[in-house]
Amino acid sequence: MPYPYLPTDSITWSVPTANLENEFAGDPTSVNPRELFDFEYDLSAHAAFSNTATLEFWVSGGNLPNDLTLASNGFISGTVAELDSWVDWTGTEYERPANYVIAKDGSNFGTWGSAAAKEYLVEFTVSAKPNDDPAGDFTANTGVAIKVVNNFNSDRDQFIREYTAQYGLSFKVDGVLVDANTYIEAQNYPVLSANTGYLPTDPGYVAP
């Protein structure tokens, strides 16, 4: 039945409270996004409309983790940007000290930002309405939260680059001192596996 809809028509959200499956697009698999990893999830599967119309979705409050997008069909996808490139740690216990200098022994690295926080919870609101409802009379909202887990690989690489910038060539490949990028590429470091951590909020949540 096209718009206008009946007062008895309604949209019901059923965002699960348990960890979701098949959200991580890659190997190893994961139920949460990790920074610098691909992420995909079909949120439309959790919105039911009592009518037969097709629903369209959008972010109506807050923001997704950087470089993730929500398509109008409810599909979340993208590659999560490095946390320290978009999270403002100012005023938190993870703020980088203004006078921070990497210690010669490296002991104070990882004491600020994403390396110290280890994860970051992003809360936002998603709205849905029938795609032929121009007035949005049947819009329904749900709160969603995605916990982004820190990728310590990027922190390790950042340490190597900052240490080299601070103290000059310090790392060797085949016994020869080389620049940071050459050293990182030569190590062929393995990718760390991810932890669980997708946390939907209550349906009544409204992002600030």
CATH architecture label name of the largest domain: Sandwich
Roughly how many Å is the radius of gyration? 22 Å
- Main β-sheet: number of strands, strand sense, barrel status? 3 strands, antiparallel
Per DSSP E runs of 2 or more residues, the count of β-strands stands at 10
Topology-level CATH name of the largest domain = Immunoglobulin-like
What do the pLDDT scores average to? 80
Domain module count: 2
CATH class of the largest domain: Mainly Beta
Total helical segments: 3
Strand order of the largest sheet: 2-6-5
- Strand/helix succession: EEEEEEHEEHEEH
Given helix and strand content, the structural type is alpha+beta
Measured as a percent range, the helix fraction is 10-25%
In words, what does this structure look like?
This protein has 208 residues and is α+β, with helices and mostly antiparallel strands. It has 2 domains: 1-87 and 117-150 and 193-208, Immunoglobulins (Immunoglobulin-like), CATH 2.60.40; 152-191, no CATH class. Helix content is 14%, strand content 26%. The strands form 4 sheets. The protein has a 3-stranded antiparallel sheet with strand order 2-6-5, with no helix packed on it. Strands 4-7-8 form a 3-stranded antiparallel sheet. The protein has a two-stranded antiparallel ribbon with strand order 1-3. The model is unreliable at 17-30 and 192-208 (pLDDT under 50).
